[in-house]
Sequence to fold (179 residues):
Amino acid sequence: MVVTKNVKLPECNELMVPEVDLTTSTLMSAGAHLGKDCEAVNNEFMLCRYELNDPRACLDLGRKVTACTLNFFRKVKKNCLEEFKQYSNCVDKSSGNYSLRYCRKTQAVFDECMLKKLKIERPDFGYFTRARVHCSPSPAPAAPPCPCHKKYPDATPSLPDSRPRPPARFTSRYYHVTE
Fold:
């Protein structure tokens, strides 16, 4: 996108949102539940980004995704803080690449708490890789005029081929290779 004088850029106060100020191990630990809890808002944001191809149009949805994430962590802090701390600490300390496989026991305790208190079930393996249809409440955007569909006149017709074409020697289809 080319920025000209006609393009309205957002002001700084429109871009300022409270940040999710958490560590990698915290986000990795809560990732599956967070993805499940904020799935609809996140899908709407990604749909907006890919359909409109203009990040300025999706600022409000981006704020909603951030607000959903902050709200999710507030709920976890209020209801399952100790279980989450144990699980996040295990993910942080047990491996150098935040692998979840060493922390299955603390994960089970955290998952049980999330299911019992917040009614958020951990999605099964491969849930986020499956194709799903997202029913969006916003209307589909109008197709922008594409410069690639311009009508161009036909190319100049080429001259007739006057070179003689004898049959191929040795019954090869590629006679020009053997000549």
